[in-house]
Design brief:
The complex is a heterodimer of chains A (about 300) and B (about 675). Chain A is about 75% helix and about 0% strand. By secondary structure, chain A is mainly α. Classes of the chains: A mainly alpha (about 300), B alpha+beta (about 675).
């Protein structure tokens, strides 16, 4: 198992390297530079700025310099927010995004798993159809519609919650968390329902029933664990994406998370910020996928990585 | 902050129930009901103390996140708004935009207009208590011009002797024409007389630096805790993408006249989010309003919507370096005349923008725009002439002009581009391809001019002078994206730079605009307006063409609800005082005071009843009101109130309507400073 884990982590290095390389050259290929503005800079100032951020060096050299810095976990200064380094921007935005993301994921798991299970057990009943219709609606309505509607109703009409902003109080988290959770709930409940229905028709469940176990034991002891597998594999990338924040949610609720840096950084051609966020996101996905695989092994006795690798 | 929000919620509920039927068009326009502010200003234009709200906290929406709060590395309107509060230049702007003494108490200007001597006030202090010296200003100006600082807004300093050589690095920073004659005197030498120079000094590139903290913190100098500033406020918190909080600077020389204790600046990436915050009562001042919401705003928040002229021109530029616009001014004139600007501002932009045929906005003091024949024609006449010129340029229905119109992605620019293209199509039969591009892609294409034919352009004046607009069409100017090159025009601009006699200078400016408009490298469409929502509780500011509003002039007034609430509290307090044992210990004068105050309160009560003011139970959570616990203080306060009430006059509320805005906007004779960035 440890050998497997090491191997997996070593295998992640080329992936990351590829990611950095692609991202580095792609952002450089985009037209316009970080210091372009409505007001054109005098050529001397532009040259000075370029020299300050080493943009006057050959691209290969900049790439090498960047790789060296990433090795030391130094993502460099932000081109746009001149008072801050990319590391600081990430470490101030990530806790906010992660808090919202984890809360949304927790909510989505509780609601999604229960709704999916409930629907699967009452397959083709009106409850099943009802739950699935709601889930379908949840997937179909984009967050940029849900979020303003929530603000209009909950904040402006009912006056129950503030219209946005951030100060780590629950009142300001409710709407962003619900908005983030809605599509997740929809996905998870549909995944759970489909997979549970399939599991309930499999042979080992029939065996369990034949042994005379109560329906309750059949479901909780035998069916739920394997049925959760597709949900788990969905969770890896889903958690990574939800942790790094959603631009739409952050803009509409004015939350100072990581998602805005991604998009704003790209629009501003803030090379270091975009790269920093991409690398950070990449590492997060790799780690979470790895954790998912470990959980798989624990949930499904048929999967044993160490045997395969030894 | 949340407390404030909750306090307004009942009102918002009320207003929403008022428009419960949705936005049905047949519905009677019903303004949102908001607390009515008390606006009484004493004879000396200072607010009377009893009208001031207990919490002097201003919450301003501020567009994008500022790039930096280092005054010499910053650019853009959001950063400059905050820096104007944090720092103070040799000169500052008054609420109406006029330039007034700042840290410099007064100054002399030499006869040739090229040497300025500034005398600093003795009581100017940094926010840590250090004295602000002439050397701080000299150091600040040198640092700003130094290429090592890479200041993006450094052009502001170009009138100073040797500035260009210093920017380029050919001369060291200390050869800049600035020196400290002694601790309190700064002397600045200019290349040429520059009538708007005083207004340039209100801008961040001309701010002083606190040298010890810069030396100690280097690149992190502009962070909360490190930044030592000399303005009315001091940086307290900065959470990126969340807020920037400023506190009143206790060492500021005019501390007594600063009313606000705190100013919050909130960045908003989304105009609708900003509007939602304002409606929820979380903001007192918005940076802008969504352009598409004019009808709603006009119907629901007419008293809070402030729309006033702004020193800027929206235009379309022609690329003169390639076909079809490299020759043939007729074609450009035809395209210009075919656009019905009245219709455009009435139906498309909607906020009362002023249609224009000029580059320089009307209303700059002492400037007379050159007459342009077409201005007085009817649109039908213009269109007939447009058709004639179009044919003379060699196009007709069979061989129509095919052009591309580029603009940066934005709903507003798109609407305008669509409207203009439709007008060209209708009048002349021109086939226009609309191309929208992401901001930086657009900028690059516009600057390089290789594929661009017609582009969206706009320019906000850096200072209140026609030169700010005309100079961007000089053949050597970096901003000249049209590639316009006319030696006559260039020579005129160069002569303006050295002309000392104001009237002759203005004539030269008008002449150069006439030359420019004859060649027409651009198609002016309208003069910008500033549009924002301002809570009626925010007072002390005035609309001004430069749209710079320093928080130091502003204050928050009580609403009538709060005032009557405060009266009631004071009344109870006074009564309790008479009954309590305090009476025994306090000497006779207090008894007299209390008696007087009771009389006075009777008057106020009558006044309140006749005005039909309802008391709002929610206003009771006003912390300062409930904090008034000591009966002595209460009695004193009531006494002061009485004195003030006798003296005060009722003033008209500040925000103005759109219709009267143009006339009401009195342009000052002073030249005013700049707006660093154009709308995107």
């Amino acid at each position: 198992m440890i050998a497997y884990a090491l191997r997996r982590l070593l295998g992640a290095i080329p992936t990351l390297l590829m990611l950095i390389t692609l991202a580095f050259f792609m952002i450089r290929l985009s037209p316009g530079g970080p210091f372009d503005n409505e007001r054109t800079l005098p050529p001397e100032i532009e040259a000075n700025l370029n020299a300050r951020y080493h943009l006057d060096e050959p691209l290969a050299m900049q790439y090498a310099r960047y790789l060296g810095n990433v090795l030391r976990f130094d993502f460099g200064p932000s081109f746009q927010y001149k008072d801050w380094t990319v590391n600081e921007l990430i470490s101030s935005g990530f806790p906010v995004s992660a808090t919202l993301g984890l809360l949304a994921m927790a909510l989505a798991l509780v609601v999604g798993l229960s709704a999916g299970t409930y629907a699967a057990l009452r397959q083709n009943s009106w409850i099943d159809y009802g739950v699935m219709t709601i889930a379908m609606t949840g997937i179909s309505i984009p967050t940029f519609v849900v979020a303003p509607l929530l603000i209009l109703v909950v904040a402006l009409s009912l006056g129950w919650l503030p219209a946005g902003g951030w100060d780590w109080t629950p009142a300001r988290m409710v709407m962003p968390v619900v908005t983030l959770a809605l599509p997740l709930i929809a996905y998870i409940s549909r995944l759970m329902r489909a997979s549970l229905i399939e599991v309930l028709h499999s042979n080992f469940i029939r065996t369990a029933r034949a042994k005379g176990l109560s329906e309750r034991q059949v479901i909780f002891r035998h069916a739920l664990k394997p049925a959760a597998l597709p949900v788990i594999s969905f969770l890896g990338p889903a958690i990574a994406s939800v942790l790094t924040g959603s631009v739409v949610v952050e803009r509409i609720f004015t939350v100072p998370g990581l998602g805005s840096h991604f998009v704003q950084g790209a629009l501003n051609r803030d090379y270091t910020l975009v790269l920093g966020v991409v690398v950070f996101y990449g590492m997060l996905i790799i780690v979470l996928n790895f954790l998912v695989d470990l959980i798989y092994a624990w949930l499904d006795p048929r999967i044993r990585y160490d045997r395969r690798w030894s | 902050m949340i407390g404030g929000a909750y306090r307004l919620f009942p009102l918002i509920l009320l207003l929403l129930s008022a428009c419960g039927g949705g936005d049905a068009p047949q519905q009677q326009p019903e303004p949102l009901s908001r607390p009515v502010p008390v606006v009484r200003v004493a004879a000396d234009a200072q607010p009377s103390p009893q009208d001031l709200a207990a919490q002097q906290i201003l919450r301003r929406g501020n567009g994008e996140e500022p790039e930096t709060l280092d005054p010499h590395r910053a650019q853009g309107v959001p950063a400059n708004n905050i820096l104007r509060d944090l720092f103070e230049g040799l000169t500052i702007e008054l609420p109406d935009g006029q330039v007034a003494p700042g840290t410099a108490e007064h100054w002399d200007i030499s006869r040739d207009g090229k040497r300025y001597t500034f005398y600093l006030r003795d009581d100017a202090r940094w926010s840590n208590g250090d004295v602000v010296t002439a050397e701080d200003f000299v150091f600040g100006l040198r640092r700003s011009a130094d290429p090592a600082t890479s200041s993006p807004a450094v052009q502001v300093l170009s009138p100073i002797v040797n500035a260009h050589e210093v920017f380029a690095g050919t001369l060291p920073a200390d050869s800049l024409g600035v020196r400290a004659l002694n601790d309190h005197t700064v002397q600045i030498d200019l290349v040429a007389p520059t009538p708007y120079f005083l207004s340039l000094l209100t801008l961040p590139p001309a701010y002083p630096v606190h040298r010890p903290s810069l030396a100690a913190h280097g690149d992190q100098y502009s962070r909360p805790g490190n930044l030592v500033s000399n303005g009315a406020f001091v940086l307290s918190e900065w959470v990126i993408y969340s807020h920037i909080l400023l506190n009143r600077n206790p060492f500021y020389w005019d501390y007594e006249k600063i009313y606000l204790d705190q100013v919050y600046y909130y960045p908003f990436a989304d105009q609708n989010a900003e509007l939602a915050h304002y409606r929820a009562g979380d903001l007192d001042w918005t940076y802008e309003v969504p352009s598409s919401q004019y009808d709603w705003l006009e119907q629901k928040l007419p008293d809070e919507l402030s729309v006033t002229p702004w020193l800027g021109t929206y235009y379309l530029g022609f690329n003169l370096t390639r076909a079809p616009f490299e020759a043939l001014p007729e074609l450009r004139v035809a395209l210009s005349l075919a656009v019905d600007r009245e219709l455009l501002v009435d139906k498309v932009t909607r906020f009362g923008e002023l249609p224009t045929f000029h580059l320089v906005p009307k209303g700059i003091p002492r400037y007379e725009s050159p007459e342009y024949d077409y201005e007085n024609w009817t649109q039908a006449e213009r269109e007939a002439e447009a058709k004639r010129l179009y044919q003379r340029a060699g196009y007709d229905e069979e061989f129509p002009l095919r052009i591309e119109l580029r603009y940066n992605t934005s709903a507003n620019h798109k609407k305008i581009a669509l409207a203009v293209a439709a007008m060209w199509q209708q009048v002349l039969g021109v086939e226009t391809v609309l191309i929208n591009e992401e901001w930086r892609v657009f900028l690059q294409n516009r600057q390089q001019g290789r594929i661009t034919e017609v582009y969206r352009g706009g320019w906000i004046g850096d200072y209140n002078d026609p030169y700010a607009f005309l100079e961007i069409f000089h053949s050597q100017h970096r901003q000249n994206d049209s590639g316009y090159e006319n030696p006559t025009f260039d020579r005129l601009l160069e002569r303006i730079g050295t002309e000392r006699i104001p009237s002759r200078r203005m004539r030269l400016l008008a002449e150069s605009e006439r030359v420019l408009l004859q060649d027409l490298p651009l198609l002016p469409l309208y003069t910008y307006v500033t549009k924002r929502l301002v809570s009626p509780r925010v007072q002390g500011w005035q609309p001004n063409v430069m749209d710079n509003h320093l928080s130091r002039w502003m204050y928050i007034v009580r609403t009538e609800d709060e005032l009557s609430q405060a009266d009631r509290e004071a009344n109870e307090q006074a009564r309790r005082t008479t009954e309590s044992e305090l009476v025994d210990t306090v000497d006779e004068t207090v008894d007299v005071l209390v008696d007087k105050s009771l009389d006075n309160l009777g008057e106020i009560a009558v006044d309140t009843v006749t005005k039909g003011v309802q008391r709002d139970p929610m206003a009771g959570d006003n912390p300062a009101v409930s904090a008034v616990d000591k009966s002595m203080e209460s009695a004193d306060e009531v006494q002061i109130q009485r004195a003030e009430m006798d003296a005060e006059v009722e003033a008209e509320p500040e925000p103005e309507s759109i219709a009267g805005a143009a006339e009401a906007q009195e342009l000052s004779p002073e030249l005013r400073p700049e707006r660093m960035e154009e709308d995107r």
